[in-house]
Amino acid sequence: MLTTGWLLVFVLTACNHERPAGENARQKEVLSEQLINVNKTMVRTEDELIEDFIHRYGWNMNKTGTGLRYMIYFGGQGPVAAPGMKATITCSVVLLNGDTCYPSLTRSFIIGKETVESGIDEGIRLMHEGDKAKFILPSHLAFGLLGDRKSIPQRATLVYDVHLIDLVNIK
Predict the structure, then answer these.
(1) Whole-angstrom distance, CA of residue 155 vs CA of residue 129
(2) What is the per-residue pLDDT across 35-53, written as a single tens digit (0 to 9) for each?
(3) Whole-prediction pTM value?
(4) 112: Cβ–Cβ under 8 A, 6 or more apart, which residues?
(5) Residue 128, Cβ neighbours under 10 Å: how many?
(6) Where in the sequence is the domain holding 124, given as residue range(s)?
(7) Which helix (H) or strand (E) holds 167?
């Protein structure tokens, strides 16, 4: 009959059994492939939801390589936004389901300094001072997996209505 101590040693020894290095590498490879496939499915699903939203509203939007959708609906006469310039914008932010996250925000930031959502930075670079535009940011260009922990939920696709009020060259 085994004593409790010997049983514990046996269990710990069995649990410490190390797998061959090749088996661990293969398991990591399989897990990595599974995660990539899940991510691709999530991106594809989000892209379909965005396309349905655009179709529902009849918007004629352009799509960048990153997945940002944009539509400039009022053309300003000012300079083109460029990295290093200080941009001042007003915007509203809503979810695809119509829920308002932020009804009115005024923000100033340096273009290209990663102080705003990457989709906003990308979209502003497509605008002239005075332009008004609609942006649809997939979650990976907005607040990602966590949201902003205030009004924007996790993995949220966001619709911005943006007015580029001012550009200042600060170089």
Answers:
(1) 30
(2) 888 888 988 999 999 999 9
(3) 0.81
(4) 83, 84, 121
(5) 15
(6) 61-169
(7) strand 158-169
